[in-house]
Design goal:
The complex is a heterodimer of chains A (247) and B (222).
Chain A: H1 11-43, H2 57-84, H3 87-119, H4 127-148, H5 152-184, H6 199-231, H7 236-244
Helix pairs in contact in A: 1-6, 2-3, 2-5, 2-6, 3-4, 3-5, 3-6, 4-5
Chain B: H1 2-18, H2 20-41, H3 45-66, H4 70-78, H5 80-86, H6 91-120, H7 125-152, H8 159-186, H9 192-221
Helix pairs in contact in B: 1-6, 2-3, 2-6, 3-6, 3-7, 3-8, 6-7, 6-9, 7-8, 7-9, 8-9
The chains are: A mainly alpha (247), B mainly alpha (222).
């Protein structure tokens, strides 16, 4: 069977496809989020140590997962854009960055909301919190670099290189922060030992993670559509589209 | 290739020598930043010596960073950077000469001056030595990683602030191991583990950073 693998690597063909996919992913995200919220807030048992406040982890943990995962995906698109010189890959990387930064911020905020009743403090220089904060800086650096370069081609390539440098550094930063942390403070708070989780809790967390995943795909497709229109505004397919008055 | 490498190094050093005040600015920046902390925190020797490793390392980080924009900017504006890019020798190798020149001009003076500031912070003798070793091992990494940031932000508006946002998060491992080495020696433990990790980070960046810098320069100049 012969297939043209690169059919949708051109903005002209990808734009309508993304337009068709976006509603599906939004619906999936809404559905999964509703079920996930029901499972995590109604079905999951109350934690005997932490009470009801633990339920914030159903938002916090998936957000933290997504924040790291999106950075890797972003770097993957960036690498592809550099290697194959594909415009769309770079646009995808650019479209993913704000969502990744949003999830990083969400993980930090929910983490501190959880930390206040649990640890009695909004912020602890814990290894995970600190590396999450640094991840936010990496996202912000990527976005700042891209937005301060006017030439989109150069912005793409410079951003891609920065994302790759960042992805090499993320494990180094994570381990250095971890060792720094164990050096400075004793194990007053140990998040490393995962408590045994009830199956419903795990289910709720997984459903929420899937919902966030679908949301990320939907939003980044929506964003990449805007980027495509903006970047390709002088191309024929955008002109045909705008002439038709299509949405 | 050796010839070209030496030429680049000599040229950069000569240029730095002709503009000696630039070197002094970096050095004074380091001194001023590290002198502000006692003024803000108070002169108790016990407090000062406990914050000294972190403060001196952060000051070294910042001093290394503010001088980054000079690494390629002048060459970029007068066109000699393009000549470097067109040279038959591999760019990643030639770039190491520029990075070495930057370190010799901006990193090494900080390393040599640091023990003096350390004395003001009531650091014990042994910790002073560890401070020098750690800076000696760590500051080349700052120049190496910084070169990537400097190359990426070449000719970009607001590049001075942007380079801080790009480069400082990447400096964190060096800061942790460097300041950690001094702190452990203060507590009477061996700083060897930290120094080894610092050396490992340096070697890794020595391998990867010139390649990334060369790629970044090609992106910025084309």
């Amino acid at each position: 069977m012969h297939m043209n693998w690169f059919k949708f690597s051109s903005p002209a063909t990808f734009y309508p496809l993304a337009g068709k996919l976006v509603p599906w992913f939004f619906w999936l995200a809404t559905l999964l989020a509703l079920v996930g919220l029901y499972v995590s807030f109604a079905l999951a048992p109350t934690d005997f140590q932490q009470g009801e406040a633990y339920r914030i982890i159903f938002v916090h943990v998936p957000a933290a997962w997504m924040s790291m995962f999106i950075y890797v995906v972003m770097a993957g698109w960036a690498a592809m854009g550099l290697a194959l010189n594909a415009r769309l890959s770079a646009m995808m990387a650019q479209a993913l960055a704000p969502t990744g930064a949003m999830f990083t911020l969400l993980a930090l905020v929910t983490g501190s909301l959880w930390g206040k009743p649990m640890w009695g403090t909004w912020w602890v220089w814990d290894a995970r919190l600190t590396s999450e904060l640094i991840l936010l800086f990496l996202y912000l650096g990527f976005m700042a670099l891209q937005s301060s370069i006017d030439d989109p081609r150069r912005a793409d390539r410079a951003g891609a290189l920065l994302a790759l440098v960042g992805v090499v550094n993320v494990p180094i930063i994570y381990f250095s922060v971890k060792w720094w942390n164990t050096l400075h403070q004793g194990s007053t708070i140990n998040m490393g030992v995962a408590p045994k989780m009830a199956a419903t809790m795990l289910l709720g967390m997984l459903l929420m993670a899937l919902a966030f995943w679908m949301y990320s795909i939907a939003v980044s497709l929506l964003r990449v559509r805007c980027i495509m229109l903006e970047r390709e505004r002088s191309s024929d397919w955008v002109k045909a589209l705008t002439a038709k008055g299509a949405k | 290739m050796k010839q070209a490498w030496l030429t680049v190094l000599k040229r950069d050093l000569l240029q730095a020598y002709r503009r000696r005040s630039d070197i002094a600015t970096t050095l004074f920046f380091f001194v001023i930043v590290s002198s502000l902390f006692p003024l803000g925190i108070g002169p108790e020797p016990a407090v000062l010596s406990s914050i000294a490793p972190g403060v001196l390392w952060v000051a070294a980080l910042l001093a290394g960073m503010i001088s980054l924009s000079r690494m390629f900017a002048a060459d970029f504006s007068d066109g000699s950077l393009e000549q470097l890019l067109l040279a038959p020798q591999p760019l990643a190798v030639l770039v190491t000469a520029k990075i070495l020149a930057h370190w010799l001009v901006c990193g090494l003076p900080v390393v040599l001056l640091a023990p003096l500031i350390g004395l003001q912070y009531a650091l014990p003798n042994e910790a002073l030595w560890v401070l020098v070793y750690s800076l000696l091992l760590g500051t080349p990494t700052l120049s190496l990683i910084g070169a990537i940031g400097a190359a990426l932000t070449l000719g970009v508006r607001g590049s001075g602030l942007l380079v801080a946002l790009l480069v400082l998060p990447l400096y964190i491992p060096t800061l942790i191991f460097g300041a950690g080495a001094v702190a452990t020696s203060q507590h009477g433990m061996s700083a060897e583990a930290h120094l080894s990790l610092l050396a490992a980070v340096s070697l890794l960046s020595l391998v990867l950073a010139p390649v990334a810098t060369a790629a970044a320069l090609r992106i910025s100049v084309e």
